[in-house]
UniProtKB/TrEMBL annotation:
PROSITE patterns: MFS (PS50850). SUPFAM superfamilies: MFS general substrate transporter. Keywords: Membrane, Transmembrane, Transmembrane helix. Pfam families: MFS_1. The chain crosses the membrane at residues 12-40, 60-81, 88-108, 114-135, 147-166, 172-193, 228-247, 259-280, 292-311, 317-341, 387-405. PANTHER family: CARBOXYLIC ACID TRANSPORTER PROTEIN HOMOLOG. It is found in: Membrane. Residues 19-409 form the Major facilitator superfamily (MFS) profile domain. It comes from the Bacteria. GO terms for cellular component: plasma membrane. One of its GO terms (molecular function) is carboxylic acid transmembrane transporter activity. It comes from Hymenobacter swuensis DY53. This is Major facilitator transporter.
Length: 421
């Protein structure tokens, strides 16, 4: 890698600057819109004429896959634009697209309309977090980066709780309207947010920026990239399968009463608020991103075991309590994105910080059919064994993630003022 030699030091900012506030609020609306479908899945599908339990499950997974497929496409698009055109253009462009798409979601009348709009919303949702984390990482002093991204995550994941409360107060269509309106309102906060000084310096150099395929032309660089992707997969196994399918798992576990995906999401993301705060703080205290991630991955493995094998026949209250602690255990999302951003030079940083979380989110597209196949293989005809399938898929994803973080270079306190050759 080459070191950029600036004419003057890049401009830095404080923890509560406009950049950090806008990134945090952007992620708040991002999470609101991203998780809203999991909350309104049953209600919205029922109103659209899908009432059979197996169809609600299969059509719900289809719509999730469309949303996550959009995020895969959007991750590449926004990542490249972030390194070519700037972090700010991606931050606000993505907010505009997912806001308009979610307003349109409130008007859907058919499954096909629903699916295509979830795809478009997914493309929009793909850009905000990576651009926000990159901007915060490049404008805060290196000693405070972990605290800055912790603020972004802690504020952001609480958007899921607002999604639950709004859906309880209004119907599912109005919940989509609220999410879109919040995003459009956020665009008014553009004033006072400035572009990353490191990006401005890289733009003046001769180095190529935003070349996604450059990640695949160098062996060590590709290995770093793939490891960054793998660290985030367990979170989306938990949210995309265990929590989204809470009603189905509740029946399989023989709970004493029904549970809803909405409350499962609420309690999981409530836990994520504490988890993101704790993981960011732990990485600063330990002065190590990798050790903090290892602690949380081990904690996540423990809680997945409790969820699947420790609460058979329990009450819904106990189930939701486990969802809350499970949420704490996967509260390493912003830490994971921060690590991805810190692993790469300025000319590829936004590309990686945007594609890595979206490819991790998009892993649900692969995890869902693998989970369904495994459940069918381990169960009886017509009676899939979701509990054992969850254990197998969860264990494999956690072991791979633990290996990935254990073999990545430590990035705590790393100087980000360099470019990739």
């Amino acid at each position: 890698m080459n070191t950029v030699t600036p004419a003057s030091p890049p401009k830095t900012t404080g923890l509560l600057s406009a950049i950090v506030v806008v990134a945090a609020l952007g992620y708040f609306v991002d999470i609101y819109d991203l998780i809203l479908f999991s909350i309104v899945r049953v209600q919205s599908l029922n109103e659209l004429g899908i009432t059979a339990a197996d169809q609600v499950t299969s059509q719900g997974l289809y719509l999730i896959n469309m949303q996550m497929g959009g995020m895969l496409l959007g991750g590449i698009l926004w990542g490249i634009l972030g390194d070519k055109k700037g972090r700010l253009s991606v931050l606000f462009g993505s907010i505009l697209i997912y806001s308009l798409a979610n307003i349109a979601n409130g008007f859907v009348q058919t499954i096909d309309q629903y699916a295509w709009l979830r795809l478009i919303a997914g493309i929009g949702l793909a850009g905000e977090l990576g651009a926000g984390i990159t901007l915060v990482s490049e404008t805060l002093p290196k000693e405070k980066r972990g605290y800055g991204t912790m603020i972004v995550a802690t504020v952001g994941v609480s958007g899921a709780m607002l999604a639950y409360w709004v859906n309880e107060a209004f119907d599912w269509r109005n919940a989509y309207f609220v999410g879109g309106g919040l995003g459009l309102a956020l665009l008014a906060l553009r004033v006072g947010v400035y572009e990353s000084g490191l990006f401005e310096q890289a733009k003046k150099s001769e180095v190529e920026r935003g070349n996604f395929f450059a990640l695949f032309t160098n062996g060590p660089r590709l290995a770093r990239y793939l490891k960054c992707l793998l660290i985030g997969v367990p979170l989306w196994f938990v949210v995309g399968i265990l929590i989204t399918l809470s009603p189905e798992f509740g029946k399989d576990l023989g709970l004493t009463g029904p549970v809803t995906a909405g409350l499962g999401v609420f309690w999981c993301y409530f836990g994520l608020v504490f988890g993101d705060f704790a993981s960011g703080t732990l990485s600063q205290v330990l002065r190590s991103r990798n050790r903090a991630l290892q602690v949380f991955l081990a904690f996540c493995g423990l809680m997945v075991g409790v969820y699947l094998f420790g609460i058979q026949g329990a009450s819904p209250t106990v189930f939701y309590a486990v969802c809350f602690v499970l949420g704490i255990s996967v509260g390493f999302w912003a830490l994971f994105v921060t690590v991805a951003a810190e692993q790469f030079g300025t000319n590829l940083r936004a590309t990686v910080a945007t594609t890595a979380p979206n490819f991790a989110r998009g892993s649900v597209v692969l995890l869902v059919p693998i989970f369904q196949y495994t459940a069918a293989a381990l169960g009886q005809p017509g009676t899939p064994n979701r509990v054992l399938a969850g254990a197998v898929v969860g264990l494999v994803s956690l072991l791979i993630a633990f290996w990935a973080v254990s073999t990545l270079p430590e990035s705590f306190g790393k100087d980000l003022d360099y470019v990739e050759e």
